[in-house]
Amino acid sequence: MRVLLIYSNQRRDLFAAPPIGLCSVAGAAASAGHEVRVLDLCFRNRVRSNIEEAISKFSPGVVGISIRNIDNLNLLYPVNYLSETREIVDVVRTATNAPIVLGGAGASLMPAEILEYHRADFIVVSDGEVSFVQLLAALDRGVNPQPIPGVGMMRNGRPSLVPPTFAQPFTYGSHVGRWVDLAPYRRLGSSYPIQTKRGCTHSCIYCLYSSRLEGTRLRLRPPADVVEEMDEAVRRYRVSSFEFVDSVFNEPTDHCVELLEEVIRRPWKVTLAATSLTPGNLDPNMLDLMWRTGFRSFSMSPESAHAGDTGFPVGYRAERRLRA
Ligand code: B12
User: Fold this and answer.
1) Which of 28, 39, 141, 223 to pair with 46, CA 20 to 30 A apart?
2) 73 lines ligand 1 (CB under 6 A)
């Protein structure tokens, strides 16, 4: 089947974010034998004509659209992005009769509402590599895709969804450079996103990562695989800075240490960052290893102090340990 995958996100908030999830899904669909094209709209000015052109040239049998952001998460100056994504869906709808499948973090957080609002045909919640490929197989054979975990569709005018299992092992690379041009991202200072695990064991009251996006069980990607993907990015796409985009990068410690030691063994030097760390197991040895590996920054939001499951804030526990 010919599959066109569109990255709808044009935001530059903090950094422009390359379509890591969409590329991973593209790789899975291609491995399953489909002919796949990716249209990255991030730096396109003429969105409508770009979509129309891609559809008329490629004649896709299915169009997948990634919805990364719903809003800017800023309570003081809230901005909602969904009117932009609905417009993109409308342009696709007018240009082709192919079924439209939504996916991505934004789509997964409130799937019923997103499916209905965008008037799409299907929605894939959470990990897309397995469920999207199963959906493609069902569409190819003309079989009812309803029982696929993580896939939703409109039924009798109402959204109907089989919840995701968060059970698939995590063994995929996204290989973003194989699917999109990294140069404009690089020019804006964005790093190459890479994931070393999926899942989050915390149950912080303000966060939906574990309940909606990745599940509560950690699914670890073998460190050697992660570093192989980095190696390809360095050699083929001249990437010099990476950002680990795990929900919590430094858990579990042994996995994180094995990964960093593998990076040190490689002949190249790169700059590393991580989107999210827990202060719980950040000790001087770990910080020293991170520095030697190339870490120059990481973010840790103040709310990480909520430990949820233990009843004690992590910061408080760390302080007690230091005092002891
Ligand atoms: C890392 C990260 C960042 C980094 C990105 C760094 C980088 N180099 O890429 C930084 C810090 C820059 C960042 C910034 C922002 N972020 Co952010 N970010 C994340 C985080 C933690 C991980 C995203 C990621 O890379 N996941 C890994 C990939 C593999 O997963 P994925 O993209 O979801 O893809 C999978 C599925 O969704 C699905 N899928 C994806 N696309 C498609 C398409 C189809 C067709 C199908 C079938 C399936 C499918 O399959 C994929 C593989 O399994 C998520 C939270 C989370 N745990 O997901 C928030 C998250 C995505 N961010 C969010 C937001 C809002 C933002 C900002 C707007 C915040 C701000 N105001 O500045 C900006 C926007 C940045 C931008 N330019 O778009 C929200 C989005 C939801 C919402 N409320 O809108 C999230 C969910 C966090 C939250 N608090 O809820 N972010």
Assistant:
1) 28
2) yes
